[in-house]
Each structure stands twice: as structure tokens, then as C-alpha cells.
Amino acid sequence: MEKIIAAIDGLKFSRSTAEYSAQITRETNAHLVGIFLEDFSYHSLSVYDLVPKEGSLDDIISKTEENDKQARRQAVIDFTEICRQAKINYSIRHDQNFAIKELLHESVYADLLIIDKTESLSRFEQDVPSDFIRELLVNVECPVLVVPKEFQEIEKIILLYDGDPSSVFAIKMFCYNFSALKKLPVEVLSIKSPDKDLHIPDNRLMKEFLKRHFPDAEYTVLHGNPEFEIVEYLKNKHQNELVVLGAYRRGIVSRLFRKSMADVLMQELKTPLFIAHK
Asked: Cα separation of 81 and 248, whole Å?
């Protein structure tokens, strides 16, 4: 892996995004680009703030704009300090057009994008994942590492595998981009229906493939509903895992009636998720 981009909201600086980005960049000896999303339509001013209390409306808008500029300047300072302490190669770019359009364009030329799972590019609180994160994951052109609000050093890798080519693709992308993390313990987790055996899908082929990448990988196969069993299993883990999973992209009708596994894990777990789809 050579180029990592970190999506940063200067008005609501995510320290964990910067810290995870610094750790991954250091481990992979890559170059980190901090993308500061400064969408011209996004500011901290609310309709309530526009009701003059003291001074004119122009004074209120001017003060808010100055406060926003200061917050964004401080975010750059904080990001820079984290990168300097990690002793990594980094650069900073300010995107001032529509944030989602700019970030998707940036993703075409990146090996990995790192972003806080609570990111919304909005002054309003939104459920996780926000509309911004959903649109990003559906249309992004590189793998994404979605990180929690609090940083913890990654201690173990969990590969979610169900036999579908999309899950294998995500594992391949992780192998190709994170070879430096192969020293960490790796576990392959599969969930099968109660009437199936406890072998992983395509047992021989998958183990033959993984033996070349993670020769000491452990395999866990459980019976039950994937959305329930995976969450319950990972909630009871005691190490700081990074979870690898496949396709987010589905048809519009499918997304209306059924959450994706990524949605469920973002809502229920406090762990970074590596998400990749074709």
C-alpha cells in the first residue's frame, strides 16, 4: 500500500481518524493525505443563530464564519501534530466543493480511505451510519477503513467469510494492502445455517488460499443468523480487533428492507471495519 487518504471534518475533528491513519501509515510505510472536507454549504450556523440577540445579523454571520475558520485551523494543527509524533510521511489537502463528490473523486486515486463511522458532514446529529457514510460506502472506488470514535491499537484481525466471492474479494484487498499486519493473530469467522456442517464454505480452496497469506489463521464456524451471531460473538471478544467484510453495494429495494452487515456492525460494535467491494 502506497497512498492512504483520511477524511477529516474540520468543524468536528475526529482524533481517532487521525490516530488510526497514523498507525496504519506507519505500519505500512505508506504516504498519508489528510483530506480536509470544507464543503462551502457546511457551517456551524443554525437557523436559531440567525435570530439577532446582540448586534446585527451581519455581525452574527461574520463571527460564526471566523469561529469556523479557527476550528478548521485547529483541526489542521491537531492532525499535523499526530502525524509528526508518528513520524510518518504526510500531506494536507483542502477540498472546498461538495464533500461527497470530492471524496469519491479522491478515492479513485487511493489505496485506502479512512473515515470516522459517525461522520455526517452536517451540524445535526445523525444515526450511525449517516446518509453521508452510506453514500460513500456504496460509491467509493477504494477499500474503506471505518473507525470508531475512540482509538485503540489494533491487536487482532477478524476475517468475515461466507463463501460469497465478495467476502473473498475483501480478504484479498486486505491481504494486498495490509501485508505489514500479517504478524497479528488472524481469525476467520463463518456463520452457517443450523442444517449445515461446521466446515467453512469451499473449505479446501479457501484454506489453500489463506495458508499463503495467514498460515497460522484460526477458523471459527457458528450456526445461526449472521447478523445476530457475528455481533454477539464479537461483543464477547477481549482484544482490539479489526474486522474485514465484503460487499456493501446492493440494489435500492434490498437496502430499503434489510440492513447491510456493515450497518449492523457500525451500530453495534466499537471496532474498526475494513470494507471492500468490487
From this structure: 34
Domain 3-147 has CATH 3.40.50.1000: no
Decide whether 3-147 matches 156-275 in CATH topology: yes
Lowest pLDDT segment from 9-23, 28-42, 135-149: 28-42
C-alpha cell at 187: 481469525
Q: Are 29 and 88 in contact (CB under 8 A)?
A: no
Packing angle, helices 57-86 and 15-28, rounded to 10: 30
Mean pLDDT of 235-260: 68
CB 219 within 8 A of CB 66: no
Q: Which CATH architecture has domain 156-275?
A: 3-Layer(aba) Sandwich (3.40)
Domain ranges for the chain? 3-147, 156-275
For the range 253-260, what are the long-range contacts, defined as Cβ-Cβ under 8 Å and sequence gap of 24 or more? 259/227
Give per-residue pLDDT as tens, 45-62.
554 444 555 656 566 667
End-to-end Cα, the chain, rounded Å: 18
Give the neighbor-by-neighbor strand order of the sheet with 144-147.
Answer: 89-95, 31-37, 3-8, 112-116, 144-147, 273-275, 241-245, 156-160, 186-192, 218-223
